[in-house]
Each structure stands twice: as C-alpha cells, then as structure tokens.
Specification:
Number of strands: 4
Largest sheet: 4 strands, mixed
Helix content: 25-40%
Structural class: alpha/beta
Strand content: 15-25%
Oligomer: single chain
Length: 143
C-alpha cells in the first residue's frame, strides 16, 4: 500500500512510531516485555521494507520514531533506518541496553548530538548481569 498526500489530509495518522526491529538481545531478562534474548531472531522484514516504512511515515507527517526490540542496535539495518528518518527531519530515539554498542553506533550518536537519559533509579529491574535493563539514546534530527 502506498500512502499519498490525499490520504494524509483524510486520515488521522500518529505523530510517533515504535519500530520493533528485533527480538535479538545480548541479555535474557526474565521480565522482558518482548521475550527477547540471545537466541532470538531479527524477523522477516527486509532492509527495503524498513526503509519504505520510514518513507511512508514521513509522507503522513510522523515526527518521531523510536527503535525498540530486543536490542535494536544488533539489527543490521537499524542504522540505515535511523539515518533515513533523520534525512526526513524525523527525530529518532534508540531504546538500547547499552551493553555493547559498536564503534559505528557511538560515532552515529556523537554525530547526532546524543542526549543521554538521567541515571536509572536504583529500584529499576536489573538484567542477568546486574545492570539496569534499558536506557535510551535520544537522537535529535538535523537542524
């Protein structure tokens, strides 16, 4: 399905999308809302499908995209998805456990002026190695 400008005027689309990119995660937290873990998979959507979804989101006026999962930074196309959204001026937030980010993700977050969230409260659920379960990398769109 292709969304056109006409559709945008006649439908009430959300301003934010959560893109559940993967069930794969380095951790195996018992309380995970997504049942993610090291043996899980990325799913069946192709890179082109993810990028087309971002194109459609931009067409209908989505202003913010959050990449979630599992651990979205493990998905091979997550960086491309984030970059495509930023090209449209859509802000991007990557919900990550920050256990291991590649140099490419660190470079990406630094280039986009990453805003780190406040420290997790002491009573937050912990993962299997005792760290707070999730943090977000909020990435501002280009100005």
């Amino acid at each position: 399905m292709t969304i056109t400008a006409l559709d945008r005027r006649t439908w009430n689309f959300p301003r934010m999308l959560w893109l559940d990119m993967t069930r794969k995660c380095q951790l195996n937290c018992s309380h995970c809302y997504n049942s993610s873990g090291p043996t899980e998979e990325h799913g069946t959507m192709t890179r082109d499908s993810w990028l087309a979804l971002v194109d459609q989101a931009a067409t209908v006026g989505v202003e913010h995209i959050q990449l979630i999962g599992g651990e979205p930074t493990l998905h091979p196309d997550a960086g491309d998805v984030a970059n495509r959204a930023l090209e449209y001026g859509i802000s991007v937030e990557v919900y990550s456990n920050l256990v291991h980010l590649t140099d490419a993700w660190w470079d990406f977050s630094n280039a986009m002026e990453c805003h780190w969230p406040p420290p997790t409260i002491p009573t937050a659920p912990r993962n299997t190695i005792g760290l707070p379960c999730a943090r977000a990398i909020a990435i501002r769109g280009p100005t």
